[in-house]
Amino acid sequence: MSGNDGGPNRRASRSSGGGSRGAASRGWRDTRRDRSVSAARAVAYDVLEAVRTSDSYANLLLPARIERAGLEGADAGLATELTYGTLRRLGTWDAVIAEAAGRPTDRIDPPVLDLLRLGTHQLLATRVPTHAAVNETVALAHRVAPAAAGFVNAVLRQVSRTDADEWVRRLADAARDDTDRLAVTRSHPAWIVRALRAALEHEGRVGELDALLEADNVSPVVNLIALPGLGDAEPASLGAPDAYSPVGFTAEHPLALVAAHEGRVRVQDEGSQLAALALSRARPIEPGERWLDLCAGPGGKTALLAAEALAGGAVLVANELVPARAELVRRAIAAVPLDVHVRVGDGTELDPAELGAPDGFDRILLDAPCTGLGALRRRPEARWRKQPADVAELTAVQARLVDAAFAALAPGGILAYVTCSPHTAETHGTIAAALKRWGEAAEQLDTAAVVRGIAARPLDLGGDGRTVQLWPHRHGTDAMFIALVRRRRGAESVAERAAAAR
Ligand SMILES: C[S@@+](CC[C@H](N)C(=O)[O-])C[C@H]1O[C@@H](n2cnc3c(N)ncnc32)[C@H](O)[C@@H]1O
User: Fold this and answer.
1) Where is the active site (predicted)?
2) Selecting from 3.90.1580.10, 1.10.10.10, 1.10.940.10, 3.40.50.1460, what CATH number does the domain 23-165 have?
3) CATH ID of 269-501, from 3.30.300.30, 3.30.70.270, 3.20.20.70, 3.40.50.150
4) C-alpha separations of 125 from 10, 85, 205, 215, 219 in Å
5) Which part of the chain is CATH 3.40.50.150?
6) Residue 1: pLDDT above 80?
7) How far, in Å, CA of 279 to CA of 402, rounded?
8) So what's the ipTM on this one?
9) Ligand 1 test: best mutation among 273, 277, 321, most atoms within 8 Å of CB?
10) Which of 17, 113, 322, 418 gives 20 to 30 Å between its CA and that of 467?
């Protein structure tokens, strides 16, 4: 890889010698009997192949494949590390492989390239002994691409002659410029490096770029939420409370806790918790307030808003475009004894009066569809799939949704505009353009003061305070962006606007 904007090149043009067998003819179940290939490596290869050929999501597919192969304990851990680690570091490994093979990676058969990536990850980023990393990968090659087994052996031996630090030094020395250097050594597409740099520059914290890119390459710990006000599930009694979210915590056996607490304890990033709380705790709740979660699926934030609405006597409506995701919202809120109306439909075509809010909603969460560049650490392949063109498409959607949300606010009502992307076009760009359109009708709130007021500990935030940008490297959260905006009381209400339109 040369730090180009598209990331590692996956196109195959010329074979490395010998074809490869398809997954269908392979039958990975056999690997439990075939001790010449470790089942963990077979599972990792299988997932890499599915990600490459059928756009699968590793985090959804891997658990099923681990279960199907009967992997437990250390073997399951190895399959997870090999799959996620290889996918995250793909950009760096492809540059190493191109050097070691003496040819660009687009001249290596894709299945063979996946084998080399798996082997290189073991050699340069794990404690797997060199002989095991090479021999196990060659054994796997004998199953999936037998004619290329010799080539795999030769390339991995070449990779193993240089240690990881020296490889990174060599790649850095060969880089054209700083962006290219970071792209190849920190394994991100160059356009994402530029976008993250611009986001940090916006806060005057560009010196943190390397730490941010490195944080994207580390698996996040499983973070939990104890939905507030629902029985005995208190963070401090269940595990180690989060640094910032008053309802978040980590625990040694997170999934066992989730199962034991039947929906009252859920997996949720701490940044997502703070985003939902920024809306529900922006000011005291008046009983009877009407709340809307405009883009609710799969419902993580809806569940927290529902618990908060229940405690404060508010009414909550959740809206989601995709029916299957609306169903996930229903499941997410099942443990909260609040009657939440889940509407399936386009958020830009929503009539507050039909949803029981003729004067508009008092609080609206718009957790907008976005590139997700703030959650790269938990979606290992995502960085290679996103394209710069996605940004323009999504900002257009965000503009329509944010206008619809603002139009559905009651006078004095508060909108929380949230993204799990720090890309400035999706964050400051979307909100600044909207504020211009809304003019005097809108007033930005001191979002930083609200979030600091919620956080259990002092929170190091950049920017001017009107918006909040959280970061994986600084806060240990996804890179969530939060902007709170109020509709001024003098501004036309929904009912008045509807009357004027008649
Ligand atoms: C970032 S996700 C929301 C995540 C959610 N708040 C949570 O915490 O689980 C954005 C959601 O918006 C939905 N969506 C996209 N376009 C929409 C539209 N026009 N109207 C309503 N929902 C939409 C997507 O299907 C997706 O479920």
Assistant:
1) 420 (nucleophile)
2) 1.10.940.10
3) 3.40.50.150
4) 22, 8, 29, 15, 14
5) 269-501
6) no
7) 15
8) 1.00
9) 321
10) 322
